[in-house]
Design goal:
Elements: E1 4-7, E2 10-16, H1 21-24, E3 25-34, H2 39-51, H3 59-72, E4 76-78, E5 81-82, E6 85-87, E7 95-105, E8 115-123, H4 128-143, H5 145-153, H6 157-166, H7 171-179
Parallel strand pairs: 3-7, 5-8, 6-8
Antiparallel strand pairs: 1-2, 4-5, 7-8
Helix pairs in contact: 2-3
Length: 181
Amino acid sequence: MRETQTSPSSPDEPVPAPVRLHDILDPDRVLCDVPVRSKKHALDILSEALSSGETPLHKLEVFDCLVSRERLGSTAIGSAVAIPHARLDQLSGLRAAFVRLEEPVAFDAADGKPVRFLFGLLVPPGDEESHLQLLSMIAKMLAQDLFRHALDDAADSEALYDTLVEFDPDPAMKDDAAGRR
C-alpha cells in the first residue's frame, strides 16, 4: 500500500508519496556484468529480470512491450545509460530491474555512445504520476558521473543493488536546506 501526503496547496487532495527504489527493485532483479550481443539481446535479458519475482510475469509479454516502446524512440538517455520502460495491463504496482552489461552495446543513443547500464521499469495502467516521477528520478541519478562511477566500481550484484537503493538523488538540496536552518 502506497503512503500518501497532502499537498499544502490542496489539503484535501492526497498526492502519492515519493517512490523509493527499494520498494520496487528486488535484489534478484539486479544483474552484474551480463554478456550481450545486441540491443535486442539486452532487452531480452532485462525482460527476464523484470518478469521474475514473487508475482512472475510472462517474459515474452514484457519483452514485446519493451521492444514496442523502443520502436517509438530509443530509451537511451546518453552517458552509457538506457531506461527501457513500458506499461503492462496485468501489473498491480511499479516494478524495476537493473542490468550492468559486461561490454557496452549500441542502443541508438542521441549521443552516439553505446549503453552499459539498463534500468528497466514496468508500470501499471493509470499510474502516470508515479511513472513520470520515477523516470525523472532515475534519469537524474544516472546522469551523475559520480553515481555511474559507483555503479562501475560495484563488485557484484549485491553491491550494485546497495548502490542503487542507498543513493541520494539530490544531496545538494539537502545541503542547501541544512545551510538555511
